[in-house]
Amino acid sequence: MTELTALTIAEAREQLKAKAFTAVELTEAYLAAIDQANPVINAYVAVTHDRARQMATASDARLAKNEGGALEGIPLGIKDLYATEGVHTQACSHILDGFRPRYESTVTANLWADGAVMLGKLNMDEFAMGSSNETSFYGPVKNPWRATGSNADLVPGGSSGGSAAAVAAWLCAGATASDTGGSIRQPAAFTGTVGIKPTYGRCSRWGMVAFASSLDQAGPIARDVRDAAILLKSMASVDAKDTTSVDLPVPDYEAALGRSVRGMKIGIPKEYRVEGMPEEIEKLWQQGIDWLREAGAEIVEITLPHTKYALPAYYIVAPAEASSNLARYDGVRYGLREQGKDIVDMYERTRAAGFGDEVKRRIMVGTYVLSAGYYDAYYLKAQKVRTLIKKDFEDVFAAGVDAILTPATPSAAFGIADQELASDPVKMYLNDVFTVTVNMAGLPGIAVPAGLDAKGLPLGLQLIGKPFDEETLFATAHVIEQAAGRFSPAKWW
Amino acid sequence: MTLIDTRTPEPKRLIPGATGDWEVIIGMEVHAQVVSQSKLFSGASTAFGGAPNDHVSLVDAAMPGMLPVINAECVRQAVRTGLGLKAQINLKSVFDRKNYFYPDLPQGYQISQFKQPIVGEGIVTVAVGPDKQGNFESIEVGVERLHLEQDAGKSMHDQHPTMSYVDLNRSGVALMEIVSKPDMRSSDEAKAYLTKLRSILRYLGTCDGNMDEGSMRADVNVSVRRPGEPFGTRCEIKNVNSIRFVGQAIEYEARRQIAILEDGGSIDQETRLFDPGKGETRSMRSKEEAHDYRYFPDPDLLPLEFTQAFVDELAADLPELPDEKKARFMAMGLSEYDASILVSERAIADYFEKVADGRDGKAAANWVINDLLGALNKAGKGIDETPVSPAQLGAVIDLIKDGTISGKIAKDLFEIVWNEGGDPKAIVEDRGMKQVTDTGAIETAVDEVIAANPDKVEQVKAKPTMAGWFVGQVMKATGGKANPQAVQALVKAKLGIEE
Amino acid sequence: MSVDLDTVKRVARLARIAVTEEDVSALTGKLNSILGFVEHLDEVDVSGVEPMTSVIPMEMKKRIDEVTDGGKAADIVANAPATEDNFFLVPKVVE
C-alpha cells in the first residue's frame, strides 16, 4: 500500500468509502507527518491532534453506516484567518494573542458538515498581508521545494504560504486559503499545487478575519484540479450572514472536469507580457497556449488596457479597507493589551506591539489615503479604476472569450529573507502583478502547475473566468494538468 | 453644506445685549432611536436596560470576521419618517464607515451615511406659542437630511478609580440622525421644533421619543450675530436629553457667546456639554486634535436601493399626522389652541376622538383639555395612565347633554369616577345626583325663596338682573340638583320679569 | 504626493500606533515609495466612471426584524484582557 498521505482527496474518498482504511488511520498518518515535518517546514501554527482524532472517529462511525458526507474523513489544514471555535485563530498576528473564537466561520462549518477533519491551523502572512509568508508572527514557512542541488530555503509564497506548503509536503489532504491580491494563486504556483480564487461572493466571508473586505475571497489549495473542485464545492455556499455573498446555487464543479475545451475561445492578454519577464515564464505561457490549442481551443489575442493600473489601485483600496478593518484590534475585547497611562496610550502601545511592520505600513498608507482631502484622489479614484478594469474583462467576455490564460507569477519562488525585496515594499508587491487584476474585478482565477524552471522549481499558469463560471476554469485547468502532469517536491525535511 | 438663511430678523426674538441687539441662530441634530425589535445590523435585542453585554451579538462586539446585515424594518422606519417629514426619499443611499477610536465603539468605526443619506430635504411646520393672547405663530424649519446609523455602547467612568466599564448593549442599535437647517431663532422655537419632531415620530411609531431613556437626544448648534449679518461661529452642545434642557442650554449659550463678543472676544468652534445641575454649558473636548473620520463606503455592505413602489406603499399606509389632524379638529369647530393641545400627543388625540365620537366636539375638547388633562397633570400622570376611560368621560358628557345632571354636578361626578371608577350613569342613579326637573318641586322651592325675601322682591323690580340671586338661592335650596334652565324660567315668571 | 515626518506622525496618531522617531523616518521612506507607486493612477481618466460596488448587479440582502441573537455575555467577554461582571474594563476615559 502507498503512503496514506500520498493520496489525493478523490483517491482517499473512494478508499475510505471502500473501507480500505479508516479515517482515524488516515488522520494519524497526517498527524505523524506533521509532527515530523512541521518543526522544519513551519506550515502549521497550531496542530489540533485531539480534535482531529475525535472528528475522524466520528467520520468512521458515519462511514460505517454509509452516511458519509462529500469530504467524510478527509483531513484538512485551515488557514489561521478562519475562525475555528475554541481553536487558535490569530491570522498569525501577535495582536490576536490567545484569541479563541466562540464561533465557527461559515466556510469551515461547511467543511465539517461535509465530514472533513481538522488537522490544525496554517501559517500565513500576518492578516494576509504579504507574498512570502515572512510577515507571520510565527515565522516564515519553508517551501518544500528547493532548487536542484541547492540547500537554500525558499519562500512558499503568500499570504497562504502555510496552506500551499502543507499541501505540497503532504501535511494535509487539502487546505483552505484566502486570496485578496493573489494569496491563493501565487503560493500555489510557488509550490506546484492548484489554487482557485472563486468569484467574489461565492464563498461566505463570515468568520474570516478581514483584510480588505471588497477583495477578500476564500478558496482552496489542493494537489490537483479535481481536489480543488471537490473542496470548493464544499466551501462555497449562499450565506444570509454575508451581505456580499451571492444568491446562486453552488454547481458540482467536479462534474466539469473532462469537459472538452474544443471550440472554446481562450484570450491571451498582450498587456501581461510585462517588461523584464523571465524567458522561462514566457516559454511556459506559450506551452500552455499550445496545449489548449491542441485540445481544440481557439486562441485569440485580447487587450485589457487598464491592467497596469490594477496593482497601484490595489495598493490604495486594500490598505484603505485594512486600516478600517484592523481598527477593532484595540486591546479592549480580545487579544493583546499593552498597559498604558490612559486609554489612548493603551491603544497606541497595544497596536505598536501587536502589529508587525508590513501591517503597520499598510494601516498607515490606508489611513493616509482616506484622511481628509485625499479620499477622492485616492480611494474613490481607485474604485473607479476598478470599474474600468472590470469593464476591460466584460468587453473581452462579451466578444466571446470563455477564459483568459496568463502566467500566475512573474517568477518562481525566491529565497527567504531576500534583501532586495525587504528593502523596497513595492518590489514585493510586484509579485501580485498577474493575479491582482482578478481580485480588482471580482472574477474567478485558478493557478495550475504547468512545469518546472531550469532550477527545478515549479511554475504555474493562471486562468481567469467569467463571474461565477468556475466550471470553465476547472475544465480548462484540467486540460493543462493532463498535459503538464503533476509535480511533487523531493522530500528533504 | 452651504447654510442658507431662510428667516428675516424680527425684533421680538432678538436678545438685547449691552451694546445692542443680537440674534440667535439654532440648528439641531436629533438622534432618534428607531423602533425595532433588533439592531440595525444584527439580531440582538434593542430593549432598554438588560444585564451588561447581554443584548450583544458577535457582530455588535466586532469579533474578527463578523459582518453586518441590515434590518429591513429599520429601512422601512427611516423611509416612513422621511415621508412624515415631507422629505425627499432617496431610492439609492450608501452606508459609510466613520472611523475613530473609542472604547464604546467596538469596530473602530461607526456605520453611518455620509454623502448619500436615505432621506434628503424636508420641512417641519412648527406652531410656536401660545402667547399671552393664546395665539400661535407658525414657522417652517427645514430638514437638511435624515440618515441611518449605529448607536455606540456605553462607558461608565464612576465605577472604579482607574478603569472605565464598557457595556455594548446599545452598540449597533439603529438611530435616525435628523439634521435641521439653521432655521430656528429662539429657544422657544427650538423647543417647539423638538416637541413637534417628537410628536411626528411618535405618531409614526418610528421612535418612542423617550428622552429620559436616551431614545431621543439632541445636539444643538448655537451661534449669535447682529441682525442682518452673516452667521457667526457656532458651538455644538452635545447630547441634550430633555426639551426643557434644550431651552436652558440655548439661553445660556447665547448669552455666553454675546458676552464674549461684546467683550471684544471671538467664539471658538467647539463641542460643549450642558450641565443641567448648574444650568450652564462647558467645553467638552480639548482641541488637541481635529477629527478626521476618514469616511468611505462600507465594503461589507452594498448600496441601499429600493423602488418608488415600495415608498408609495409606505406612504399609503402612513397614519394621519399631527398637522392634518389639527386641521381636521379645527374644522370640527375647535380653536387652534384646543386643537394644538389635543394633537400634541397621538394618545391624547386618540382619546379625544373616542370621546368626541357621536358627541359635540367642543364639549368633548373642553372636558379632555380642562378636566382630564388638568387632572392628569396635577397627578403627574400621562394619558396612558388615565383612570378615566374615554367611555366613562363620554358617559359624563352624555348625562349633561340629556339633562340628567347639571354641569356643576358633572364636575363632582368626574371626580368620583377619577377616584373610584365605575359607570357614571349608575353612580348618578345610586347617589341621587340626578337633576330635579320636576317643575312642581322647583316651583315650591321658588315660592319659598320669594316668600322669605320680600325685600329682594322689591329690589328686583327696579333691577331685573337681580333675578340671578333668586336662581342661586333656589339652586342652593335644591342641593344643586334643580335644572338651572327650569329654575331661571320659573323665577322670571313668578317675579314678572320680561324676557 | 509625498509625506513628511510630521504627516507620518499625524497619521500614526490617527491610526493609534505608537511610533518612535526612528520608526517615523523609516516609515516615511517606505510610505513615499508606496505612494509614488500608486501615483501611476494619475494617468487614468475616470471622468464619468462610477466606482465599483459589486461584481454582478445585486440587491442588498436584508434581515427580518426579529431578535435572534444576544444572551451570551459570557461569550462576548470570554477573550477580553480585563472584565468585571461581564463589563469590559479599559483604562479610565477622561472627557
Distance between the termini of chain C: 36 Å
The CATH architecture of the domain at 5-42 in chain C would be Orthogonal Bundle
State the separation between the terminal residues of chain B, measured CA to CA.
71 Å
Structural class of chain C: alpha+beta
Tertiary shape of chain C: flat
Number of domains of chain B: 3
CATH topology of the domain at 5-42 in chain C: Histone, subunit A
Give the low-pLDDT segments of chain C. Answer: none
Task: Give the overall silhouette of chain B.
Answer: elongated
What structural class is derived from the secondary structure elements of chain B?
Answer: alpha+beta
Helix content of chain B: 25-40%
Poorly predicted residue ranges of chain B: none
Main sheet of chain B, how many strands, which sense, barrel?
Answer: 9 strands, mixed
What attributes characterize this protein structure?
heterotrimer; B: 499 residues; alpha+beta; Arc Repressor Mutant, subunit A; 19% strand; C: 95 residues; Histone, subunit A; two-stranded antiparallel ribbon; 3 helices; 3 strands; Aspartyl/glutamyl-tRNA(Asn/Gln) amidotransferase subunit C (chain C); transferase activity (chain C); EC 6.3.5.- (chain C); protein biosynthesis (chain C)
